[in-house]
Amino acid sequence: MRACTLKLALVLPGLLFPAEAQERAPDRETRLRGMERHIERLQGELERLQTREQGVLGQLSRIDAEIALREAQLEDTAIRLEELGEEIEAREAIAVGIETMQAGREAYLSFRLREMYKQGPGNSFRRSLITGEVEEFLEGLRYASYLSERDARVIREYRVDAERLRGEQAVLIGERERQQAIRNEAERARNRLVAGRRERTGFLTRLRKDSDVRKSALGELEEAAGELTDLVDDLATGAVAGVDMHTFRGLLDLPVEGRISERFGQIVHPRFKTRVPHPGLDIEADQGRRITGIFDGTVVYAAWLRGYGLTAILDHGSGLVSIYSHASVLLVEKGEKVLRGQVIGQVGETGSLKGPFLYFELRENGRAIDPAPWFR
C-alpha cells in the first residue's frame, strides 16, 4: 500500500498537493482566457472587414484576419488539449491505483475462501470443544470474530472501490471523446489555416505582377498612414505621466528582440520599389516573438487597423504615444494600464506585405519622431 501511495504521489502531485496545483493553474487559465478574448476580437474584426473594408488592403486584411483567427483557434485547441491530457493522465493513474488495490483484495478474499473450505464449517470450534480447553476456545472465538470483521470490511471496500472504478472509467470515456473532438476541431482549423496561407501567397504574387494593383495598393497605404495620424490625434488624452518618459530618453529597450531593417525617414518600399515616407522602425523578428511596451502607459487602441493589421497604441502621457503594428496576437485591451516591459502581443504579419515583423512608431504631440535615439 505504501508503494502504491508513493507511486500516486509521483504521478499525481496535483491531487496530493492541491496548493501546488493551484499555483500552476492560473498560468494556463490566463492563457486560455486571453486566447478566448483574442478569438472573439478576431471574429468581430473579420465580420467588420467582410462588410466594410474594400480595395487591395481590404482584401489583404480579410485574408490576414482569417489566418490570424485560425492560428488563434489552433493555439486555443492546443491549450485545451494540454489541459485535458493532464486530466486524463491523472484519472488513468487513479484508475490504476484502484485496480491495484482491488487486485490485492481479490487475492486476499480468494485465500480466505480456500482456507475456509479446507477447514470446513466450524472446524476450529469443534477442535476446541473436543480438547475441552476453554481458554483456547475463547481465543479461537475472538480470532474468528476478528477474521469475520476483516473479511466484511474488505468486501465493503471492494464494493465501494468497484463503484468508484466504474465511475472513473465512465468519466475517462467521456474525456477521451472530448479529446478526439478537440483534435478534430484542431485539424479543421489547421486545414483552413493552410488554405488561408495559400490564398495569401497567391494574393502577394498577383500584387507583384500587376502594376495597376500595385499602384492601387500604394495609394491605399498612403491613405492608411493619414488615417493613423487622424486616429492618434483623436485618441490623444493630454494625460500627464506619473514619471515623464522624456527622462528615460536613450535608456529604453526595443519593443521586440530583433534587427532594425528599416529606419525612420524616406525608404524604398520593398514591394513597390518607390520611395515612400517611413515615420517609424521596421524590426525584423520571428513569428510569435513577444512584443513589450517600451514604457508605462495606457492602451488607447487595440484592434485591427487598415494597412497595419493588429495594432496596439499606448499613451505614455506628456504627449508621447507609441504604436505597435502587424501583430499576430494582442494581449491587452483598450483602457488597460501597462508597465514598462509588459508583454502586449506577439509578432506577426497581419497587414504586412513582407512577412513577419514589428512596425513601431513613436509620436510626440501627434507628430512622428525618430524612435532610435530613445533606445539603448
Q: How does this structure look, described?
A:
With 376 residues, the protein is an alpha+beta fold. The chain has 2 domains: 2-209, no CATH class; 239-374, Glucose Permease (Domain IIA), CATH 2.70.70. The chain has 7 helices and 12 strands. The protein has helices spanning 2-11, 13-16, 18-52, 55-119, 123-131, 134-209, 211-235, and strands at residues 259-262, 265-268, 275-278, 281-284, 290-292, 297-305, 309-317, 320-330, 337-338, 343-347, 357-364, 367-369. Strands 1, 4, 5, 6, 7, 8, 9, 10, 11 and 12 form a 10-stranded antiparallel beta sheet that branches. Helix 6 (134-209) crosses helix 7. The relative contact order is 0.10.
Overall outline: elongated
**Uncertain spans, ≥5 residues at pLDDT below 50?**
1-26
The structural domain count equals 2
Beta strands, count: 12
Label the structural class: alpha+beta
Strand content: 15-25%
Helix content: 55-70%
> Which radius of gyration do the C-alpha atoms yield?
34 Å
The ordered H/E elements are: HHHHHHHEEEEEEEEEEEE
**Global mean pLDDT:** 84
Largest sheet: 10 strands, antiparallel
> How many H/I helices?
7
Distance between the termini: 61 Å
Tag the structure with descriptive keywords.
single chain, 376 residues, alpha+beta, Glucose Permease (Domain IIA), ten-stranded antiparallel beta sheet, 12 strands, disordered N terminus
